[in-house]
Specification:
Blueprint lengths: L2 H23 L2 E3 L10 E5 L6 H8 L4 E6 L6 H9 L3 E3 L6 H12 L3 E4 L17 H7 L5 E7 L1 H5 L21 E4 L13 H22 L17
Parallel strand pairs: 1-7, 2-5, 2-6, 3-4, 3-5
Antiparallel strand pairs: 6-7
Length: 234
Amino acid sequence: MPRWLADRWWDLGKVVCFYTMTGLFSLRTTGSQNVPRSGPLLILSNHQTFLDPVLVGLAIPRYVRWVARQTLHKNRWLSRLIDSLRAIPIDHRGFSREGLQATLNALDEGACVGMFPEGERTHTGELEPFKPGVSLLIKRTNAPILPAGIAGGYAAFSRHRKFPSFAPLFLPATDATIAVSVGKPIDPAKYEKMSREEMLEDLRQAVRTEMARAERLRRKRRMRLRHACKPEAR
């Protein structure tokens, strides 16, 4: 697909997804002002639901090339959709040499690349340890790192659910409301002298911070206070 056509396809999808996610899940986003408008950029986000590429993409005012596991290509229609969005395929066990090089090439071309360093959707809703492959990528690129956090996705459509739980915008809030927070870019030079474990923990903490901000941003249930009536003194 020509680049100009792929861009228009992305634009159309973003408009449709904005109204869909806002209407069905009361989606709120913050931090778009932190996103550099040009140049290479690596987005790191937590992974709560298979809707996450859409959710984070709506908070990023750029075209995002997501790193996607090759196993997602087993479904013919999903494979076509992923390819049309210029996703970067990697081995399901982590970064192979080809997957790492493809990601580096995209960054060298000035692309905005998104990935989920946990490697898979969370099993519990909590932020899981990051896979070591992300450290190899960061050591070999000068692209700024942008932490992003999703809150509410696990309650809305976790890996344990066959169907999503909705939180429509014009109805009272439920636990399925979703929010996304985007943090400020991190200079990869910060990690030049860090060990792999220190780097991964620091990145994990940056994403956890954005998750907490997203949690505060979500539409919340209104608590009804029940006042006990005291008997009048006689």
